[in-house]
Amino acid sequence: AEAVTAAAAAGSLTPQDTLFTGTLEAVRRLRPGTTRGTLRAARTAPHAGYDRVVFEFAGDSVPGYVVTYAAKPVRRCGSGDLVALAGARQLVVRFEPARAHDDQANVTIAEREASPGLPAVKDLKLVCDFEGQVEWALGVAAALPYRVEEISAPARLILDVRHRP
Questions:
Q1: Given CA atoms 63, 68, 74, 80 in this order, what sign does their dihedral have?
Q2: What is the pLDDT of residues 35-79, one digit of tens each?
Q3: pTM, whole model, 2 decimals?
Q4: Any idea of the CA torsion for 19, 47, 93, 132, to the nearest 10 degrees?
Q5: If you compute the radius of gyration of the chain from its CA atoms, what whole number of angstroms results?
Q6: Among 7-11, 43-47, 58-62, 146-150, which is the least confidently predicted range?
Q7: For residue 92, how many other CB atoms are within 10 A of its CB?
Q8: Where are the beta strands (DSSP E) in the chain?
Q9: Beta-strand pair 121-130/146-151
């Protein structure tokens, strides 16, 4: 069964929509039994009142995901090494089933980290691409409200992180 929070099920988001309340709680959309999503791009952009991170996948649907603030320091999934991120908090985005490589183990997303230095989103790094999980860690300015939206053609998860008031 799928679980969707109100934030994930909210209507269309527009760049002019700066007064969203968002959430500080985990946003989950689980999709057991779906085909594995292949990540093609991750990009950021500033907007009035929030920063946007877009994760783009091959195909028409976003895999299952969980978006939540990290309760402990973020570690790489294979090595267990700590991940250094700019910002006061870490927002973690995990996709499952997903991958960031093709069947020949070639990466499908060349840029696996970025330091956009935006008002809310300071850093983002791919910290896991292993056994059907893709996980990104975002270094953010503070534990700020965020919201998510899914769109298709191509499949994208849009994550907006509100600026400090």
A1: negative
A2: 789 999 999 999 999 999 999 999 888 999 999 999 999 999 988
A3: 0.86
A4: 130
A5: 15
A6: 7-11
A7: 19
A8: 27-29, 37-47, 50-57, 64-69, 89-96, 98-99, 113-114, 121-130, 133-140, 146-151, 155-162
A9: unpaired
